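Supplementary Note 3. Input sequence used for the single-chain structure prediction.
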Amino acid sequence: MAWSSGVGGHFAANVRRVRKRVGISQEALGVRSGLHRTEVGLLERGERVPRIDTLIKLAAGLEVEPAVLLEGIKWTEGETTTTPGGFRFAERDDVQERAAALRARQPEATDAVQLVREGRDELEARLDRQEKREGRSEQE
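The predicted structure, written as discrete structure tokens, is reproduced below.
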């Protein structure tokens, strides 16, 4: 039975998002993490909630801190000694705000994006120059 929401669902979404951002398959993540690929699949579908050692293995395989995989999952304490606590899940805006904060702490990702933009701009400039040269050749 899949956990479409709750802890399993939120954890699953975090693992899938980070794995795709890293650009590896479930099988590759399994190898990196010392887990079977089917275990990774179960976790990504929210059908299984990981033990602490599995959380640490996944984080290491994805080269992120374990907290990244727990993003948006919070425990709130009970209001009184007779009122139990419960899980609270961050709203979309909260998650996006935290994601922006994480990106701000990753300058190498920003540098890579900047390099891609600079490369694109340089390529466009070269194409413009080439088109201008070809336009002059045809006129002559």
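The CA atoms of residues 72 and 90 lie 5 Å apart. The beta strands are 73-76, 86-89.
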